[in-house]
Design brief:
The complex is a heterodimer of chains A (360) and B (308). Chain A has 360 residues and is an alpha+beta fold. Chain A has a single domain, classed as Cytochrome-c3 Hydrogenase, chain B (Orthogonal Bundle). Chain A contains 15 helices and 8 strands. A 3-stranded antiparallel sheet of chain A has the order 1-2-3, with no helix packed on it. In chain A, strands 6-7-8 form a 3-stranded antiparallel sheet. In chain A, strands 4-5 form a two-stranded antiparallel sheet. Chain A is globular. With 308 residues, chain B is mainly α. The radius of gyration of chain B is 19 Å and the shape is globular. Classes of the chains: A alpha+beta (360), B mainly alpha (308).
Chain lengths: 360, 308
């Protein structure tokens, strides 16, 4: 049978962001795939070298639409350490609370995308309906559903009052029920399992070889999570267990993400309960002393890595960002080998790509 | 019956216009039900009509090199074949004309759109269209056989290949839905395949094939393809009502009409619920489900009917 090349992207109903796959098919079998990135490259690293540290917080927030808060968190952590600032505990707690809310939002969004891709529209609608709750909570706290602009160098911009805390507690309690129900239903749904089990398999060796991070690595049995291994922010004060699966397929990734969502809700509730009193931020000087630093954080998709070098002025000399999507992306060409055409959609969704992050 | 009355019956009620309205109504019902199952509000009642009018007002473009005559004929022929099938069923005529073997004719006419659907993908020539077309053909050979076998169970029970005889046999012995409920379920599975609904919407799977064979179609032709599908839903359901629920409309009364229509709505609810519950099957899963499970089961079912 002749080879057929099916173009997926840069514009395709399967992809929410522009990226290109050229899938070579023999019958329904994928024999080769070519990936192409760069359709949303905005040169953010270069732009960051032309702006002051404070302006950069708002620039970096725009790297990603889904995990905007984790980028600013990682960046602020780096600059605060360079400055030697001690962020007040309340500020750290609020920052971490938003990280967890963002994780819930990101994982629910992802569940919707995967379900849509395998033709299970009902779960898609349910997941995105429940995602509204967490979006509303984030809007309540920060004024923005997607871009929060909560982080500033030296702490956070917003403070929580008694009313915020009551809304958060109610919202999180409701969300907990909804997410547990969603988890139960996809755990036992045979048609969901038929389209995700055994697909896009990555063994533990593959994961180590490709340096995969985040839920994709945890679904293959690699026990890594920066929130526990190298705690930052309020994670230092909380014990947490990391959900691990070892099947390494799309189904395991789904389950890892769902358990993580449940856990993130639980953690958010604990953070809200344990919120310490005090100020939320300290004033930061404009000039950053000479030095270089690496900052890491656990984004919804895995480890985010920031490198900042300062030459003693108001403007960073170099800012390097490495996002989890970029490392996980490389495994796609392996995962896409010898799957059926119909599974391409669930493999691509299973990695949870964030193209805007990867392209920057 | 004078000419005017006959014309009225063919074109207005219960003919073309009534069928057209029913097709749009059932499409609306389907969308509304699925929306409610998914926790959404769903479209207003005039949405299918608005969609239809919009498509008919749109510019009609096809890729260069497509055979225009063929591309226009395909949706027309498939529309015509579904319309023709409707005239053997109690949904479009008060007293359906019947002869030995019209069961086979209706089954043939109802499967025409699937074949033409494949051709539509083939002649427009985009990569999604061709792959979608091949998939629809593969799918055709899997669902059509259990459908035929399941429906032939009713012919076995009544001893006749005529729709009118099957109806009449049920009026005396009770509807076949009770003794042949299993065959009915298999026939519903086949009908879902015919209508290319979820979970059998493999040829037009949006996340892989964009819109399958219809990817390159637009404007009036696309509108006609969609209308064919909506009409096929009503006619297919009416066919099931005829062979499994005794086709109550044959009684020619208001009561019979209402019962028939309620049955159609009930069956539509069943289809919508199935669409909302299941994820799309993969083509190899569909083929192995049909050939390894459903076909042996239908054969056993028919064997049981023959021995009884």
């Amino acid at each position: 049978m002749n080879k057929v090349v099916v173009p997926i992207g840069p514009q395709h109903p399967l992809l929410k962001e522009p990226m290109s796959f050229l899938i070579s098919l023999e019958g329904e079998q994928v024999v080769d795939s070519v990936l192409r990135l760069g359709y949303v490259h905005r040169g953010i690293e270069k732009l960051a070298q032309q702006r002051t540290y404070i302006q950069n917080v708002y620039l970096i927030e725009r790297i990603c639409g889904i995990c905007s808060h984790i980028h600013t968190t990682t960046y602020c952590q780096a600059v605060e350490t360079l400055l030697g600032l001690e962020v007040p505990k309340r500020g750290l707690y609020i920052r971490t609370l938003l990280c967890e809310l963002e994780r819930i939002h990101s994982h629910l969004l992802w569940l919707g995308v995967l379900s849509k891709n395998i033709g299970l529209d009902t779960i898609f609608m349910y997941a995105w309906r429940d995602r509204e709750i967490v979006l509303n909570l984030m809007e309540e706290i920060s004024g923005g559903r997607v871009s929060h602009a909560v982080n500033v160098i030296g702490g956070v911009r917003v403070d929580l009052d008694a009313m915020h805390i009551a809304t958060l507690q109610n919202g999180l309690a409701e969300l907990n029920d909804r997410v547990e129900e969603l988890t139960r239903s996809i755990e036992h749904d045979r048609s969901f399992a038929a389209r995700t089990r055994g697909i896009g398999k990555l063994t533990l060796e593959d994961v180590k070889r490709f340096c995969v991070v985040g839920p994709v690595a945890r679904a293959s049995g690699l026990n890594i999570d920066l929130r526990r291994d190298a705690p930052y922010g309020a994670y230092r004060d909380f014990e947490m267990e990391v959900p691990i699966m070892d099947q390494g397929d799309v189904w395991a990734r789904s389950m890892v993400r769902m358990y993580e969502t449940v856990q993130a809700i639980r953690l958010s509730r604990r953070i809200v309960e344990a919120l310490p009193e005090g100020a939320v931020s300290v004033k930061a000087p404009r000039k950053v002393p000479q030095g270089e630093i690496v900052s890491r954080a656990e984004a919804p998709r895995g480890e985010v890595f920031y490198y900042v070098r300062s030459d003693g002025t108001q403007v960073p000399a170099r800012l390097k960002v490495r996002t989890p999507t970029l490392t996980n992306l490389i495994t796609l060409s392996k995962q896409l080998k010898d799957v059926q055409m119909a599974d391409v959609s669930s493999v691509i969704a299973g990695v949870d790509l964030c193209i805007a992050c990867a392209d920057r | 019956m004078n000419v005017l009355q006959a014309m009225f019956q063919i074109f207005i009620f219960p003919g073309f216009v009534f069928l057209f309205v029913s097709a749009l109504f059932f499409h609306w019902l389907d969308r509304k039900l699925i929306a409610r199952f998914q926790g959404r509000i769903g479209p207003p009642w005039y949405q299918p009509l608005a969609d239809f009018l919009k498509l008919f007002a749109k510019e009609d473009v096809l890729p260069q090199g497509t055979n225009l005559l063929f591309a226009s004929l395909l949706p027309l022929v498939s529309f015509a074949s579904v319309l023709t099938a409707s005239f053997y069923l109690p949904v479009a005529v008060l007293t359906a004309p019947s002869f030995q073997g019209d069961l086979i004719v209706v089954l043939f006419l109802l499967s025409m759109p699937s074949l033409l659907y494949f051709l539509a993908g083939w002649i427009t020539g985009g990569v999604y269209s061709i792959l979608g077309g091949i998939r629809s053909l593969l799918q055709y050979f899997s669902y059509e056989i259990p459908f035929l076998l399941a429906v032939s169970g009713t012919a076995i029970a009544s001893g006749s290949w005529s729709l009118a005889d099957i109806r009449a046999a049920q009026l005396s012995s009770g509807a076949y839905i009770i003794p042949q409920w299993f065959g009915f379920l298999l026939a519903v599975s086949g009908l879902i395949g015919k209508l290319k609904r979820e979970p059998y919407d493999i040829p037009k799977a949006q996340s892989e094939m964009v819109a399958g064979p219809l990817t390159e179609f637009s404007g009036k032709k696309l509108g006609l393809w969609y209308l064919t599908n909506h009409l096929q839903t009503v006619v297919g359901l009416a066919f099931l009502v005829n062979v499994y629920f005794a086709g109550y409309w044959e009684m020619n009364t208001l009561g019979g009409f209402i019962i028939c229509y309620l049955l159609l709505i009930l069956l539509q609810c069943l289809l919508s619920a199935i669409s909302a519950i299941y994820a799309r099957l993969r083509i190899d899963q569909l083929i192995s489900l049909n050939w390894r499970v459903l076909i042996p089961l239908t054969l056993l079912h028919n064997l049981f009917l023959l021995l009884k």
